[in-house]
């Protein structure tokens, strides 16, 4: 028999999750949690418009139990588990969801769908929803930070299960003993996810985040029914399975004083995060040119030097809209050809554009090891465009836009909310929803509030 005494770092996490109140969060952490929720909802709605998602919603809900939770962007409702699965899956389709370099992934879209669905099912108030999301995000991000997960593992669908489970346990008012059990149960319910899905443009990757929400809610149900976990399944999974290095002390270092949720980023470009650094370097280059445009027919080659994770996204054989979001050469070529970055620069029509494809072939992307050494504090990328005339233009990124030290303006995030929401819901509903989410703490019953909207 093994020692049944749980490790100190896990009991500390469980007690923190159960005793922390909204007032305990820093102002910045509370504001970021509110924005993580607000940003995720229209991102999910836009992703739900993809044909694969529409087909999945129709097939899945045909056999699912009825419920109160939004299937966001589909105008349907479902039980919390089903809504979390569908919303989480849609939320990563367009690559516009929030992320966190310290957490090494995207905690928000793995926690928010589960918490929002459960809040609609239970009638929790907005303040409790806000706190549940903040804690699920924070504690799961800390677990990820403490590990060195193998590069071959995609971070979606792994620690996100723990985050969704903690949010659910908080909304269900779990005791510290239940929360401890919940963390141990949830830690073993992640997926064996593959980062290669990104490089192959494999859309199965989008189910990883849906899995996190679904399994997080299921983990809470299992604990309510008496299921148990290992004594320290977090260390087992993150020290032996997904990673060979795990530091329990790092999980709780600065707990309650340092908020990782306040160190996340928001996205304005519909691409993988590391592509953003190259886009920023291109935009820096274009800002130095009169009119901000280059005659693409006169481009001889494009030289890109980047940190390792960005340099990995060097594929030029892009055959799908989803795959386009994980190719630096395609992104730069499409933005140069279209004159802008946006959803249309990465849609099927852009992928079929022979001018974009030809220009992407002329991109030379290489790792600069000195840049890799500066990551993640900085995310350096340089872009140099050499013209047929011999003239050259250069731009660079040091810290990617959206990071805490180089944040987007609030009006940019608001514009994103409306740009994604209005095509799905119209202006009136989008405005009403935005205003309500900005005052989330004032919502007394989230189930009643959600009943006002057919999202």
How would you summarize this macromolecular structure in one to three sentences?
The chain contains 22 helices and 8 strands.
Q: How would you characterize this protein structure?
A:
- The termini are far apart.
- A four-stranded mixed sheet has the order 6-5-7-8. A two-stranded antiparallel ribbon has the order 1-2.
- The protein is an alpha+beta fold and 455 residues long.
- The longest helix has 21 residues, at 27-47.
- The protein is 52% helix and 9% strand.
- It contains 22 helices and eight strands.
- The mean pLDDT is 96.
- The protein is globular and about 70 Å long.
- The protein has two domains: 8-268 and 414-450, 2-methylcitrate dehydratase PrpD (Orthogonal Bundle); 273-397, 2-methylcitrate dehydratase PrpD (60s Ribosomal Protein L30, Chain: A, 2-Layer Sandwich).
Rg? 22 Å
Helix and strand pattern: HHHEEHHHEHHHHHEHHEHHHHHEHEEHHH
Question: Gap between N and C termini, in Å?
Answer: 52 Å
Strand content: 5-15%
The CATH topology of the largest domain corresponds to 2-methylcitrate dehydratase PrpD
Count of the domains: 2
Number of helices: 22
> Helical residue percent?
40-55%
What's the quaternary structure here? single chain
Q: What is the second-level CATH architecture of the largest domain? A: Orthogonal Bundle
- CATH superfamily of the largest domain, by name, is 2-methylcitrate dehydratase PrpD
Spatial ordering of strands, largest sheet: 6-5-7-8
**Low-confidence sequence ranges:** none
* Secondary structural class: alpha+beta
Q: How does the overall form come out from the CA principal axes?
A: globular
Mean pLDDT: 96
> Which CATH class of the largest domain applies here?
Mainly Alpha
- Tell me the major beta sheet: 4 strands, mixed
């Amino acid at each position: 028999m093994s020692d049944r005494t749980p490790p100190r770092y896990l009991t500390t996490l469980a007690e923190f999750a159960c005793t922390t109140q909204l007032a305990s969060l820093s102002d910045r952490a509370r504001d970021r949690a509110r924005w993580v929720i607000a940003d995720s909802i229209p991102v999910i709605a836009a992703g739900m418009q993809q044909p694969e998602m529409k087909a999945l919603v129709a097939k899945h809900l045909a056999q699912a139990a009825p419920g109160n939770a939004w299937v966001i962007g589909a105008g349907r409702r479902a039980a919390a588990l089903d809504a979390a699965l569908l919303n989480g899956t849609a939320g990563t389709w367009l690559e516009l969801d929030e992320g966190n370099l310290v957490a090494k992934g995207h905690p928000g879209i793995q926690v928010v769908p589960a918490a929002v669905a459960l809040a609609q099912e239970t009638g929790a108030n907005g303040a409790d929803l806000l706190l549940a999301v903040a804690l699920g995000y924070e504690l799961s991000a800390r677990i990820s930070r403490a590990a060195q997960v193998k590069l071959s593992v995609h971070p979606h669908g792994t620690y996100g299960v723990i985050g969704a489970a903690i949010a659910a346990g908080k909304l269900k008012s779990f005791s510290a003993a239940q929360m401890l059990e919940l963390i141990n149960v949830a830690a073993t319910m992640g997926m064996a996810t593959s980062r290669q899905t990104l490089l192959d443009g494999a859309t199965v990757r989008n189910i990883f985040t849906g899995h996190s929400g679904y399994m997080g809610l299921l983990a809470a149900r299992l604990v309510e029914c008496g299921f148990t976990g290992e004594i320290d399944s977090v260390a087992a999974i993150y020290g032996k399975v997904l990673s060979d290095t795990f530091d329990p002390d790092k999980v709780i270092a600065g707990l309650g004083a340092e908020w990782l949720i306040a160190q996340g980023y928001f996205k304005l470009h519909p691409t993988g995060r590391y592509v953003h650094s190259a886009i920023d370097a291109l935009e820096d280059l274009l800002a130095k040119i009169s009119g901000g445009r280059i005659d693409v027919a006169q481009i001889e080659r494009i030289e890109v030097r980047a940190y390792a994770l960005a340099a990995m996204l060097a594929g030029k054989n892009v055959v799908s809209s989803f795959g386009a979001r994980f190719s630096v050469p395609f992104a730069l070529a499409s933005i140069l050809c279209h004159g802008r970055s946006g959803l249309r620069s990465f849609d099927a029509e852009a992928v079929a554009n022979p001018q974009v494809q030809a220009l992407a072939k002329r991109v030379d992307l290489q790792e600069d090891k000195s840049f890799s050494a500066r990551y993640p504090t900085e995310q350096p990328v340089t872009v140099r465009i050499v013209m047929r005339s011999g003239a050259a233009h250069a731009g660079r990124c040091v810290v990617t836009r959206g990071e805490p030290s180089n944040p987007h303006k609030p009006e940019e995030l608001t514009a994103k909310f409306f740009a994604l929401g209005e095509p799905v819901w119209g202006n009136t509903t989008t405005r009403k929803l935005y205003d309500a989410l900005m005052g989330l703490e004032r919502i007394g019953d989230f189930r009643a509030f959600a009943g006002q909207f057919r999202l």
